[in-house]
Each structure stands twice: as structure tokens, then as C-alpha cells.
Amino acid sequence: MWLDNGWKFITGPEPNNPAIPQFSQSSKWLNMNVLVIDENKVIVEAQEESMAHVLEDAGFEVLPIDFRKVFEFGGSLHCSTWDIEREDEPVDLFPNFKIEESEWHNEINLQRNKSNKRGYVGVTEKINYGAKAKITKTHLTIEGHPVMESWETPYMHALADRVAADGGHMLEVGFGMAISATQIQSHPKVTKHSIIEINKDVFDTMTELKKTHPKINGLFGPW
Fold first, then answer.
1. Which CATH class is domain 133-220?
2. At 219, is the secondary structure helix, strand, or coil?
3. What is the Cα–Cα distance from 177 to 118, expressed in whole angstroms?
């Protein structure tokens, strides 16, 4: 599928610095977490010189920046961006691919049917997302796994301010600790705020917030 549509595979090199910060939940392969900013330019973490060389050999202009300390938060360049405005036009990157004729499409349908039977996805089937969540003022964990922490607040508030400033109907995927949700709600021009949440315990906390924030439209289930 990829080769038939003009794609070229590039083998990612081993990271120059495989050490991962203590609290990062990511693997050493964050060296491949780069940010493409146009057809020719790629931003790469400054220590990952091997990745930079591979991309340069493939014809890209590489822009190295020091981003190593962000690894502590579980991601790198691509994970730390949020596209809200674009200047380009939609492009079909698979012009020779007809999904309805593919084995991949058939496999998706097969797996979807299996998942429906297990109650994981599907509108007509019973949804059971009962993984136990623990929510405090500083942490959200699900089945003991860290999901969100209060130190993220300034960053998430800044993002919420950017998207909600002009108001309208907001769509948010995941409620978490309500960090961005409460900030979005603080904008008077917001007319409606739909939030999709897949975890029952977290959804219940959203239902409590809705009692004082009626613009919230909680949607329980997958997105």
C-alpha cells in the first residue's frame, strides 16, 4: 500500500542518547519523535545527530533544537504540538489506494466485530469502560497508571485560552482532571462544550461539574 502510493521507507537509527528521564513513560525511540513543518523541513532534538544525518541524507533540511528536558513529560517534539491553523490544502497521500478493496479494510471490520462482542466499542452494544480511576487535586491514575498531573495546568490553560477565546461550540476529547475543561468554561463566548470521556469514574466527575457549568455536554464512550 505504501510503496504503491509513492512512499519511501527510512530506517530509524539507534538514539544517540538512549537514556530516558526517571518519570518518562516513553521508550528510547523518542529520537524518532520529530516535527515536520513543511515538505522539506524537519525539527529534530539536538542530541539526536544520527537521526538528523539520516533525514539530511534523504534530502530534508534539519533544524535541531534542544528539547531533551521535555522527555520527562512523556513525549517530544511531535507530542508537544497542536495544530489549530493551517495554510495548506488537503492532499490525498494514497491516491492509488481503495480502502473498500483492501485486506486492511477487511481486517478492521473483523477486529471491530470482535471488539463489539467484548463490549469495548460500538454504539449498539453495551459499553463497559470500568477501569478504576483515582482522582485527586494533583493526580489522575487509572488502574494505577499515571494519566494526568496538576503540573500540566499552565500549559493546558494556555492551550484552552487559545482555542476558546473566540467562543462557539467546543469539542474536547477526554475530561481528565478538568484542567482544560474548567478553563474553557471560563470563556463567556463559549456557547456549548461537548466532552467525550471513555472512563466511567472520570465521566462521573464531569457529571458533577455539569451541575454548576450547564454548557457542558458530556458524551460517554469512545471517540
1. alpha beta
2. strand
3. 28
